[in-house]
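DM between two lab members

TW: hey, do you still have the Glycosyltransferase entry open?
JB: yeah, one sec
JB: this one, 890 aa:
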Amino acid sequence: MSGSDFHAQIRSSYLAFLTAQAARFPVHNRLRVDLHCHDHNSDVPDELWGRLLKLPETWLPTGKLVKRLQAAGTDLITITNHNNARSCWTLMDKGMDVLSGAEFTCHFPDDSLSVHVLVYGFSPQQEIRLNRLRQNIYHFAAYALEQNLPTVLPHPLFFYTGKRTASIESLEKLALLFERYEVLNGQRGFWQNHMTQLWIESLTEEKLHQLSRKHGLDPRDFCRHPARKCLTGGSDDHNGIFAGECGSFLYIDNLAQRRQQQPLSELALEALRNGDIAPYGEPGEEERLTTTFLDYFSQVAIHMKDPGLLRLMLHKGSLTDKLLCLGVSNAMQELQRHKYTLTFLQTFHQALSGKPPALMTHLGVSREFKPTLKIVKQLAKARRQTPEHFSQSLRETIPALYREVTGIFFQRLGQAIQQHRPSSSRFSLDALIREFELPTSLRSLTSARSQGAHNGQSPQLLQMLDALTFPALAALVIGGASFTGSQVLYANRPLLNALADDLNAGQHSQRILWLTDSFCDGNGVSSFLNNLLDEVQQRQLPIDLLTCHPTLEPQPHLQVLRPISQFDLTQPGEQTFYFPDMLELQRLFEQGGYDRVICSTELMMGLVGLYLKHAFSVPVWFYMHTDWHEYFQRSTALKSRYTDRFRRLLRAFYHQFDGLLVLNREHRNWLASDAMEIPAEKLHLTAHWVHTHFTDIAAQRTLPGCTPTLLYAGRISREKGVLDLPQIFQQIRAAIPNVRLLIAGDGPALKKLRRQLPEAEYLGWVPSDQMAQVYQQADLLLLPSRFDTFGCVVLEALSTGLPVIAYASKGPADIIQPGRQGYLADSAEQMAAQVLHYLTRPQLEQARMQQLAAQRHQDYQPEQILNQLLSTLGLPTQAPEPIMENRHAS
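TW: and the structure you got?
JB:
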């Protein structure tokens, strides 16, 4: 199944299941009930952070929830708050016919496992008993059976396991404890609900008997009909936005007559006990969960109070959790100080109830924010229409709202940077690293009234905050809601994968999304990625590349996002970074059926990769094209304490990845050393390969003639060692006066090199498809770089039959076998001496070295390299794995 087909097929299969369920009971003999919803009495959350911050799960008044359920067409009200039925008792006291219900958090006494259990039809006295028994789920379930109280296991594949991973064994116990399962949860996606359906359908009487023997549990102690598994549905709504839009049909024979004689709550309880239940509605998708969390975050900002430092520190929980909650509390208090942002969140919250922005809000909004207010107004209008129209509107308005406020933020940020940019037009990396620091006081970071940065040379960042605060906070809240929605949908991905494998059904597609900031920049990284795309397209590998670019057109296996904004790191146009739309990225990742990520660049896409890791619970690898620590040591004048700071930043960044793909042994050993402390098992050697237009001309290679020609190809910059070329060339020219030196490339050191080496012939930047002819003109390639992690130019030259002389470090040291395809030098003097040695050797030996050079590329075949890469990432390959160490052996 291809990635693009996975979700479509899951959706189609599950909707067909729901259609069949809806047809089980005649319309005139069924009640429509949302068996899982919450209001403000769900005030003590299970999550530690909620308790630390004194945040209820919702502030929704009971009356508003009742109106929403009635508007959605439910026939009977039940409210299932956490560990209490206060809302049900209150409604009953007012004379309303209500089915009592609650969602109890129950614990396994022999395990760190906790689950939610829905219970219906109990009395206040029975509620007290249930709360006492919930510390032991076996006693709880046995008591419910004894009292004939129907129980339902909600979201069966989402439960609490402490710090350990949820397992199939935990599910097996749950299969023995319940006979009713929520197979449709409005706050879970299609895949999770579908997997719940498949799991329930797999629980045959024979299998349950096997599980009973395995776990020493008799299901008859907990279930009236152990082998009869019934399916329910509920919205699991906490905010009253989608309450009643999914739930359960309850079958009652001769309903029209019986409802005249009995309360609907009694009839519903009878149907639940008999198992006459069928789910209705649809699962929650990305836009619904994003909306739910966006509304919740809005209410947190509106209602949250200071939890108190002493209380926070004395509460149960780890120090890390307490410090993070302290940060959240400070952030919320700062947000509450910004009245414009608070007004926006209040307006959005009201729009979800169908209330349009007030007139005064319209009058107080600047022209810049009019489109944002218009979107909120459209949302309020859609809320007053059908649920289907509202859901469709959410798919359009939430991303549009995010794009608007994010666009405003980046526009203002760009203006602020231009105002505070130093007089020098060139961005100083040295200054950035030297002065990069954050204050330890959060108030100092966020308050425009605080003092400026720690020295007078730094940009006055705090002066920008007044203009940036609202769009930054609004974008952060919307993006955070989208992130949290995905995180909830996929938090239990390991369990879903394990269950799919156990059932041999519902397996998620296995596809890699390969992220890069550099695809059409003409550098070594983009050259490799273009070669990679060619191979992926030819072999139809489960890999898609993704980049963010304003004009690049997508291709098969190449996804292109249009940027929200862009930023020039150095001089305009020299190195531009594009900011992707994160909501669009999340949609693309989910709909593409990806389940793992590789990232090729550190800046924007490195952060995006880590974002996807935590949003979708997927493994993320980093492909190390560049040794940035070495780069900054060689290209800047920083003192060791500043390069040490940069090393620690790199170490913290790389430690976040599940694995690192490394291009040479020296770099791998450094990453595993005390300097970086990356576990050796996370480091995997890989390699590049060359395009066929290099290998096709190897047979045309000729021996050096009367005018030997040397070549340097690559970026002309300090870290590439190009300033060693004048010394090397002068030493060679002293022995061979007519020697030529071609220099192909461009870069920041070009002017300086021209002054020091005017005798060379400068070709400028040469397109990749024309470089083969340049290699053909030369007799030796010189690479005076100690920085190249691989050395694509080395392999390109060798594949044309051109021997190479390079410094004995990094990638070239792994590729060149000294005396066979070229030589490795330790200094400029030694490199010059080796050039002279080669040019004065007998032609027979030169021909032999050219032949060995042309053969070397055979050790770097894309099929073998990609097969090993797929194997490293846990995907099936089409051929046996090569041994990467053998390729690097010298």
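TW: got it. The chain has four domains: 26-284, 289-349+367-487, 509-684, 692-860. Confidence is low (pLDDT under 50) at residues 448-459.
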